[in-house]
Amino acid sequence: MKRWQADGLLLAVAAIWGLAFVPQAWGMDSMQPMGFTGLRFALGALVVAPLAWRERGRPAPPQPAGGPPRWLLLLGLGTLIFLGAALQQIGLLTTSVTNASFLTALYVPAVPLLARALFGHRPHWVAWPAALGCVVGTWLLTGGQAVHMVVGDWWVIASVLPWALHVVLVGWAAGRLGAPYTVACVQFAVCSGLSLVAAAALESMSWDGIRAAAGAIAYTGLVSVGIGYTAQVVAQRHTHAADAALVLSSEAVFAAIFGALLVGDRLSPSGWAGCAVILGCILLAQLPLLAAAVFKR
């Protein structure tokens, strides 16, 4: 696969993920958040399972002394996905598709800050104005009145930390385990299991509700979780990380477009300004990586 083809595939992944916000919102019409999340990640795990099965004979790299056991790494990654997906899904009960997508995208400038805190990686200086700009963009997105944010906005903002932690840790963990498809499959299964346990304890699931949400479950599970994450792994083998981060940040733009076309989302001028500021800060946070990739050619 050529580099431009890999970047094109990542653009398709961003569109898949952007569109997924719409069926995620539709699914809440007939199901509750934990049950919906559990079923869609179960389907995602089934999609990746054949690829994980092919990795079963691959020898794992030696694990550094004193590191956490492999099972704990996988459990931790699955728990982070569970927290991120569950909080985001709860938020979609009361916030719009557009707000949810752009507020979720706040994890991008948060990643270098967490990498500094956890691993001592010094972020480029642009990470700081990018993070501040995202706060300003969030304020504009809510009409310049953050105190009047709907409760769903706060749930989505709460999902940013586990999403960002997952991005920081998944590459480190996959390198230690040496089996990316197995990592993907197991973390999806853990997320599904935790979600279904929470659904059994806190929600009421019915076959009528599952049948009504079947289309939304199928798209978000088979396409968004299974195909989307798998295509990301394939594409990133043939392009630079800077390209991948830049292209995947367009997920929020696709979500805004699909939200307007399919569910009638409408933003005020202040809201559109907030979206533009957040997207600009996401791109700003990636410029040092993109410049480094360009100058290495």
What do you see in this structure?
With 297 residues, this protein is mainly alpha-helical. The protein is 78% helix and 0% strand. The chain has 13 helices and no strands. The model has no long low-confidence stretch (mean pLDDT 81).
Give the secondary structure arrangement, pairings included.
Layout: H1 3-27, H2 33-54, H3 70-91, H4 97-104, H5 107-119, H6 127-141, H7 151-177, H8 180-202, H9 207-212, H10 214-235, H11 241-248, H12 251-262, H13 269-296
Indicate the mean pLDDT. Answer: 81
Q: Major beta sheet, specifics?
A: none
How far apart lie the N and C ends? 18 Å
Rg (C-alpha, Å): 19 Å
SSE pattern: HHHHHHHHHHHHH
Q: What best-fitting shape do the alpha-carbon axes yield?
A: globular
Weakly predicted, low-confidence segments: none
Number of strands: 0
Our count of helices gives 13
Share of helical residues? over 70%
Helix/strand structural class: mainly alpha
**β-strand amount:** under 5%
